[in-house]
Amino acid sequence: RMDDDDDVPQLSSHTLAALQEFYLEQQQREGMKTSQEFNQYSIGSIEEDWQLSQFWYSDETASCLAKEAVLAAGKGGRIACISAPSVYQKLKEHDGEDFSVCILEYDRRFSVYGEEFIFYDYNHPLDLPENLLPHSFDIVIADPPYLSEECLQKTAETIKYLTKGKILLCTGAVMEEQAAKHLGVKMCKFIPKHSRNLANEFRCYVNYASGLD
Q1: 153 domain-assigned
Q2: CATH of residue 58
Q3: Its Gene Ontology molecular function terms (predicted)?
């Protein structure tokens, strides 16, 4: 007779230990979320969801892009983050500074941010609330969820609708030509890093004199 256990894949002790560690970390993180000092705006307060093609920037990159946005927007400036939640979360840490920010995002978990959250699906680039007036943002930061010309082109419609002029785009190095074609942006020297290494080389693109060169 066949041994029933043969069909059950056995996890190696190494994998088991790694899994246990992962669950423990997750429990600790969940614990952290409920603790008093937890900051709902900090990076990681909402876990990245790979199924939504989300990849958070490293803390350093998010800080750098947030600082750049604040400078570019100027005093009392308005900043829009399209599919760039980790930059949005960093901007929220600049509390008390003179600017305002909106997050346009497909992931409805970001609705915890209240009125600043705008549900956004790049397949419907101009399906935006009426109170988002054309050309009402001093700078738009965008990180289209997919490395495809179609996704870039549709996100570009939204960017051009919202911005008064300044654009900061983060996307793959392979998109350089399309980024120039659809948004007139050029690659910066600054290289954005992600909290997990991505296979594709990532770059920033701007259409104004930025501090990223």
Answers
A1: yes
A2: 3.40.50.150
A3: nucleic acid binding; protein-lysine N-methyltransferase activity
**Six-digit token string for 138:** 């001093």
pLDDT at 6 (0 to 100):
55
* Domain-located, residue 144: yes
Res 2: pLDDT: 53
Q: What mean pLDDT, rounded, does the chain reach?
A: 83
**Residue position matching structure tokens 């979360």:** 89
DSSP, residue by residue, the chain: ---GGGGSPPPPHHHHHHHHHHHHHHHHHHHHHHSTT--TTSTTSS---GGGT--PBPHHHHHHHHHHHHHHH-TTEEEEEES-HHHHHHHHHSTTSSEEEEEEES-GGGGGGGGGEEE--TTSTT---TTS-TT-EEEEEE--SSSSHHHHHHHHHHHHHHEEEEEEEEEEGGGHHHHHHHH--EE-S----BSS--SS-EEEEESS--TT-
Tell whether 15 is covered by a domain. no
170 assigned to some structural domain: yes
pLDDT at 3 over 60: no
Range(s) of the domain holding residue 112: 50-206
Tokens of 25: 């970390």
Residues 39-59: pLDDT tens digits?
Answer: 444 445 555 444 444 567 888
Full-model pTM: 0.76
